[in-house]
Amino acid sequence: MTAFTILDDGASLEVEARVENGAVRIAPDTLRAALGWELRPEGLCRGDVCVPVRDPAALADASGISLAGFADALGRPLAIDADEHAAALGTPAASRGAALASLEAPDFTLPDLEGRLHSLSDHRGKKVLLIAYASW
Q: Is the pLDDT of residue 86 over 90?
């Protein structure tokens, strides 16, 4: 077992995980404590909500629950860097689709060149031009 970082919904979670050949497995108790999900006979469940799992044996074995299988069962994209002991769980496609369909940008706050903070919500109802730059 080794320390492993999972990024989920803006939170950084430190968990104990088993990393072998690029695959990451987490103990069921750790998954429940960190992400709130547990594997039950009816599927992956959080509270009263359960997602059926087609092949529970492929998702979990004696060494734990597969992080990739967990993400796949929930329809969430996953990026894993096993060498760096880190993974990021993405937002489910249905949630991203609903956000795009609303045509409303999520709120954010950024500084201008003078350091004054501006939030997108301050400009609701107005036309706003956003210019983004990336060096890559």
A: yes
Contact 73, 59 (CB under 8 A): yes
Q: According to the model, what pLDDT value does residue 28 have? A: 93
Q: Whole-angstrom Cα distance, residue 93 to residue 51? A: 15
For the cut 90, the answer to whether the pLDDT of residue 102 exceeds it is no
CA 118 from chain center: how many Å?
A: 27
Return d(Cα 75, Cα 12) in angstroms, integer: 20
CB distance 37 to 30 below 8 Å: no
Torsion of CA 117, 122, 127, 131, to 10 degrees: 20
Mean per-residue pLDDT, 2-19: 91
Query: What is the number of other CB atoms lying within 10 angstroms of the CB of residue 96?
Result: 12
